[in-house]
Design a protein that fits this description.
Farnesyl Diphosphate Synthase; 17 helices; two-stranded antiparallel ribbon; single chain; globular
Length: 318
């Protein structure tokens, strides 16, 4: 029994259909594009976003084929954003795999990312509802805005909690929201239930990103596949860094670093402080809010699994 089947129970087979559909895309196009897509889809990870679509759909009228198509479209958006991020960051690996710009070139990577966005739009259009098309467009805009905000914040090493939450709300939570809200639309749920799913996705996405940002500081290189503190080394200031800086009265982190305190010392100081645990507590608050969002739905196996996910996104980092 695979981990996906154990974790996602009633929708495990349909999540596999999402992965197979993405893999099939690789054989339908130009050989170079096909090779690039095959490489991208060779590692499906935990398939959390497709799971959110299928589980949220289970709370309404479960239309398997339409939900699979929505999940594929949103996973393509997610993958395209990663391809473009890796190109902007000049990253050579992601989770142990070489990136497209490392294997081919940044030009090829940009073109593949563009194709994935276009393919996502085409799949969404097949669903025949302007609400889903609008949601997909709004999600891509929110993710791009979050990335632009991160680029601006990174240049300034901005210590600003409000800016941080705006960043992750767009960069990460917007896609979680789209998975849950979009599934609510496709499964013909009531406006109240769709709004509850949208809020659930937002809160879960924020909790997920905070927990990931904590792991970036506290994890080891073997677990992370990269040195601890990689975000800060690239200029990205995350919540545990912000909380540490406030306590240490290091509001101007850039000046402190330029004054001779090297990044290894700063990262070790953050790891030794209570900032990571305080950040995780904030993640737990958002996870609890996500569980509260589900109170509108009657009891079901799908609801239980969604509630479990709110705990797992935090507990996996403790």
């Amino acid at each position: 029994m695979t981990e996906t089947r154990r974790q996602y129970g009633p929708v495990a087979d349909d999540i596999e259909r999402v992965g197979q559909g993405l893999s099939d895309l690789a054989s339908e196009h130009h050989p170079l594009l096909g090779a690039a897509l095959k490489h991208i889809f060779s590692a499906h990870g935990k398939q959390l976003r497709p799971a959110l679509v299928m589980l949220s759909g289970k709370l309404g009228t479960y239309e398997r084929n339409r939900l699979v198509m929505l999940a594929m479209a949103l996973e393509l958006v997610h993958t395209a954003s990663l391809v473009h991020d890796d190109t902007v960051d000049e990253a050579l690996t992601r989770r142990g795999l070489e990136t497209l710009n490392a294997l081919w070139s940044p030009k090829v990577a940009v073109l593949v990312g563009d194709f994935l966005f276009a393919q996502a739009a085409e799949l969404a259009a097949r669903l025949g509802t302007t609400h889903v098309m609008t949601l997909l467009a709004e999600t891509v805009m929110a993710m791009t805005s979050g990335e632009l905000r991160q680029q601006a914040s990174s240049r300034a090493l901005l210590i600003d909690e409000g800016d941080y939450f705006l960043r992750i709300s767009g960069k990460t939570a917007a896609l979680f929201r789209a998975c849950c809200q979009g599934a609510g639309l496709v499964s013909e749920q009531s406006p109240e239930c769709i709004e509850a799913l949208a809020s659930f996705g937002t809160n879960l996405g924020i909790a997920f990103q905070i927990a990931d940002d904590v792991l970036d500081v506290t994890g080891d290189e073997e677990t992370l596949g990269k040195p601890a503190g990689s975000d800060l080394r690239q200029g990205t200031v995350t919540l545990p860094v912000i909380l540490w800086a406030e306590d240490a009265h290091a509001r101007d982190l850039e000046a402190e670093l330029q004054g001779g305190r090297n990044l290894d010392d700063v990262i070790e100081s953050i790891r030794a402080s209570d900032a990571p645990s305080r950040a995780l507590s904030r993640a737990a608050e958002y996870a609890a809010a996500a569980r509260s969002d589900l109170s509108i739905f009657p009891g079901s196996e799908a609801k239980d699994i969604l509630e479990d996910l709110t705990r797992e996104v935090v507990s996996r980092h403790r």
